[in-house]
Structure formats: C-alpha cells, structure tokens
Design brief:
Number of helices: 5
Shape: globular
Helix content: 25-40%
Number of domains: 1
Structural class: alpha/beta
Strand order of the largest sheet: 4-3-2-1-5-6
Distance between the termini: 33 Å
Order of helices and strands: EHEHEEHHEHE
Number of strands: 6
Oligomer: single chain
Largest sheet: 6 strands, parallel
Length: 148
C-alpha cells in the first residue's frame, strides 16, 4: 500500500484551483507513491478535487478515492451514484457528538494522512484547523492558496 493524501479547503473555492490540485496530485502520485486520496465531501474545494481525481484515475488506475464521512446520513446525498471508490466512517468520528462530527472527521484525516492538500486563505475555521493539525503532526502540508 502506498501513501495517503487528504484534502481540506474552504467551501467557496473557485474551480480555477483545479490545475493547482492536478499538478500537486500528479507529483504526489509519481514522486511520493501516493495512491489513496481522502475527501470530506463538502463544498467546492472537495468537489473540484474529486473531479480532478476522477479524471486522473483514467491515467493512474491504481489510485483510490475515498469519502471519509462525518455522519452516515452524508451518504444519502449521493444516492447510488457515489462519485468515490468507497467510504470510511472512522470509529473516532462515529463516537463524537453530532455537533463535533465534522471537526472529529477533519482531525482524524489530518492525523492519519501522509500529505494534506488545502486551499486555506483565512486563519480560522475547520479547514485551517485541519491543516494546522496536520502540520503539528509533521505531515507534509501543501496550501494551494499560497501558490496563487
């Protein structure tokens, strides 16, 4: 098994970030042996990353795209057309009170990934906290907002 990359970003990111995501994902696949990509499934950044990853699966069929859910109900929004290869509902997230489920999911992803790609402009909020957690756990953090 290769390495994991998780995505964290603001909900309102423009799709113009797609080429930046693609460049980093290609690099991680070819240079760092990343083969698993985790998404939380909320907002424009995650949608953009999922689209880029799905397109790149044609070129790199060994990569896996997983949705890391905060609530079981989250799966209902996709119906039978889950645009991921599968999903995980970590025990640490399941045990969290509903009010803190997204924070617990982000923390789980940040602590258990090898790389974190984000698009964070503000120094507050869930995506910011996740990237900060990843950095504090000595993960490689790539903030695409700083590349623009």
């Amino acid at each position: 098994m290769g390495k994991i990359c998780a995505f964290f970003g603001h909900r309102d990111v423009l799709s113009t970030v797609a080429p930046l995501i693609e460049n980093q994902v290609r690099r991680l696949i070819t240079e760092e042996s990343v083969d698993t990509f985790w998404l939380g499934g909320y907002g424009n950044f995650d949608a953009c990353a999922a689209s880029v990853l799905r397109r790149l699966q044609g070129e790199y069929p060994n990569i896996t795209i997983l949705l890391i859910i905060a609530y079981p109900r989250q799966l209902e929004r996709y119906g039978s057309a889950l645009p991921f290869d599968g999903f995980e509902y970590p025990a640490a997230v399941e045990a969290a009170p509903r009010k803190f489920a997204i924070s617990a999911r982000n923390r789980y992803m940040a602590e258990h990934t090898d790389f974190a790609i984000g698009y964070v402009q503000k120094e507050y909020g869930g995506a910011y906290d996740a990237l900060k957690t990843a950095a504090n756990k000595h993960k490689t953090v790539i903030n695409l907002a700083k590349e623009i």
